Hints:
Elements: H1 2-30, H2 38-66, H3 85-98, E1 104-108, H4 122-133, E2 139-145, E3 148-158, H5 162-170, E4 184-194
The structure holds heme C.
Amino acid sequence: MNSKCGVVGFIVSAVFVFGAMGVAFAAEEEELEVSFSPEVVANYIHAVIAADRALYTTHVVDRLQEDRVVIAVEAWKQRKALPLPAQMLLMAGKTVEMSGSALRFRLASLWPIYEENGPSNIFEEAGLKVVAEDPDEVYSGIITRGDKRFFKAIYADRAVSKACVNCHNGHILSSKQDFKLGDVMGGIIISFPLPIEKAETP
Ligand code: HEC
């Protein structure tokens, strides 16, 4: 009984192992042919950033604040508190940049608390305006700098809780103090380089 099971088990695992290897080989052969549009790549990256932001807010900041363990404040280092979700996102973007990756992401707004979080060019300004009017819209395009091309996408960032509105409206440096729940407060800007276009062969 046991040895039968053993033999069957061996055959089953062999089928799985070789089957899986077959898939792996096939994937390797196809690797160069698979391509994703930059829109899809940006959507994937945005999904991760947005999920991390939402989960840090609900499962870390909100819970620890409700249980009176620790609060999240802007001067978190000095006050031994938690960083704000916006600060976490901005720090993550800087950490990715420092790691040597060419991926960039940040949180920006047409009404920023800090000027450095404002639009840094016409493209970003136009995109932040578009997503402010229609939060379901993703504003994206290709930017050329010298011989380099970048794909940039902007996603709406909305006031999902009263805390967003209260903090920004009450912040002394906020350039807009009448945010309402549900308003678009800014956007997540993602960019990454695209391969250099090959010159057309005659
Ligand atoms: C307790 C205060 C506080 C709360 C709550 C808060 N923010 Fe902020 N937010 C800030 C501060 C401070 C910055 C600037 C961070 C920096 O640049 O270091 C910021 C930055 C931002 C930015 C970038 C533009 C800017 O204003 O500098 C956006 C967009 C933003 N927050 C949206 C939100 C949204 C949406 C929520 C709710 C989900 C939220 N914030 C909750 C304080 C807060």
